[in-house]
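Ticket #4471: structure export looks truncated?
Reporter: QA, pipeline team
Priority: medium

Steps to reproduce: submit the single chain below to the structure queue and open the exported record.
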Amino acid sequence: MSNVFPNDFLWGGATAANQYEGAYNEDGKGLSVQDVTPKGGFGPITIEEGSTKDNLKLEGIDFYHRYKEDIKLFAEMGFKVYRTSIAWSRIFPNGDEAEPNEAGLAFYDRVFDELHKYGIEPLVTLSHYETPLHLAKKYNGWANRELIGFYEKYVRTVFERYKDKVKYWLTFNEINSVLHAPFMSGAILTRPEELSKQDLYQAVHHELVASASATKIAREINSNFKVGCMVISMPTYPMTPNPDDVIAAMDMERQNYLFSDIHVRGRYPGYIKRFFHEHDISIHFEPGDEALLAENTVDFISFSYYMSATASAHPEQFEKGAGNILGGIPNPYLTSSEWGWQIDPKGLYIVLNEFYDRYQMPLFIVENGLGAVDELVTDENGHQTVNDDYRIAYMNDHLVQVREAIEDGVEVMGYTSWGCIDLVSASTAEMKKRYGFIYVDRHNDGTGTLERYKKKSFYWYKDVIASNGAMLVEKAEGGSEDEAK
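Actual output as written to the record:
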């Protein structure tokens, strides 16, 4: 097959401020919701004094002080784009201040300047699971409409500040995850078992209005900005050909499509209106909300892809999956990673085609990768490295499916692998679940030098980018049997 990746394809990597920056209390930064989840986003919330104890995310991998070293490594791999996030609580430490924190703004100036020094385009997530903790404690997060105004002030501040340094923006990371992780994703302090569907979907509405408002503000400040939504993608297969299972899979997928449907089409779809009616949910619209959503749709759709799921009308008959936020039933035809995330390269091909068939809009894969336990070894030249052939096989096989989708005519803007440098896991707050091309010497007990080492995959990805994907092979060495390591 001839190489079909477009010449302007944006190859790169992705990280999040709360998982790698560290310096959680330096230069005026406030606490975020991440600082009180020392066991990860699905673990217990500990708001009391001292609750930040033993949280690896507080130090992360010290990007705050080592950003020049890390960006130089990204440049060596040939990155065209680098996805990162701005820590909202670096700019507004509590989230509701009248004036921003200049030291926080200056830090991102330095980061963006360093990226441009190497010709790397920043792709910036405005809110990546790191709402200021004060907004959770005082307002109950996105359950409160007041957060829209605080978010608008924050995004206007950073749009104005970086209007000549950043072109690509994402409003909320994996916005659909609020249905499954309301504190991590939506800063909602109400315990999940006590959170009513009414209050949860009202919070969803507040985020969607805020996202549309951010898009509107962006276009007022710089007409060249490109603003995208960001959702978890998780293609769902019926467990059997039973029509009831097919409908169960459709219903599960609609939980995700709801968010992209509104971002792209600017209105609530009929299926969610029926759901609201059947569950006695009545979303309160303020005057102007409907027009704001309709008139400020996104320029592109970005998404994470790690796994697919299966669904049944009778899920109690099957073992529950151990995978991503959205769960699902394990697929007997797939292998799994060490964390139970099922490995399905063709699922990425499916989701690319389904998104494009549905929306005919540019797509951007902004998270994909394999979390695994890596072993640092010494090679024949005396250099420390990781022989992560399992990661190379995983990524090769997924990128081959991206190529297949492009061959079908799907418009794919780029690909940023998740955790291009090892960082702290969002879901479990551990270091041993590594995704990177670059090994960071830090461990679950907090020990380590924080030194950086290039893995075997570092050189592989460098060659992929240099060849614009031409070196990808139909089946990677080792194949999917070994991808789970």
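Status: closed, not a bug. The export was complete when the record was re-opened. Leaving a note from the reviewer for reference: The first helix runs from residue 17 to 20.
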